[in-house]
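Predict the structure of N-acetylglucosamine-1-phosphate transferase subunit gamma.
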Amino acid sequence: MRKACFHHVVCHLTSEHQNRRGAKHIWVEQSLSFSGSRLQPKVTPSPVSGPAHFHQLAGKCFIHTESTYKYEFCPFHNITQHEQSFRWNAYSGILGIWQEWEMVNNTFTGMWMRDGDACGTRNRETKVIFVCSASSKLAQVSEPSTCVYSLTFETPLVCHPHSLLVYPTLSETLQKEWDEAEQARYEGLITEQGYNNLLKGIFEDAGLLKSEKVKIKLPEVVADSGTHNSLHKCTEDLEKQREEVKRLRSLLTQHNIPFDSEQTHEPKGQTTTTVKEQHPRGDHGLLDQL
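Done. Here is the predicted structure for N-acetylglucosamine-1-phosphate transferase subunit gamma.
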């Protein structure tokens, strides 16, 4: 005898009336919960970026239901799709994770949510389009091409004509770089492709585009040779100084150049060497060989 399975209900299967050798109870947990714990994201969302007034959307989620599907859009986080069905294999997955902005002619034209669940040989991805409205809500979801979704998000945050300009969101340093790139293009110093590459770099530095630069962890810088970071290093440096003094004395003696060697209050083993000037100022003679 089998009992029906419903949302968050544990199904109890029993063969008590079918097996004469004894009662056997089999417990099977069947849950159709669409909790986020079942979803396995492939990547971490990019940091919050773009227009400052959009940052208030971080941490919020908006739900829209079409037919048997429920869509949940969490700006700067992800987009998920949940099939509202009691089928045992009802779909629940990620349509995209926040990655970067789309920008055209100094204007933010959309948000790209990429690296969603696998869909054949590619991953699902979604472009979020903004439309002016009196309130913020997820208005429409479509799939214009296989595995690529389009989401319309209505919000009063885009009603001002300057609300989606890119330039004001940049730091003064990046704004200056953009100004210089514009001037160079105007003067014909760079090609259109070169200009676009410069803009791409500026947008990546601003966190508006996902950077493709490979970050290489450099080895730790060796301590400066003049810094004694251990007794062993100190001893090595002292021996090198002694060898250098010995070489200089030998060279001076070889060329019959007199010098004074006086012991001072310096640590034992260190010698102070004073060379007597043998040539007019400016004429270094044999001293160039030292």
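The two ends are 103 Å apart (CA to CA).
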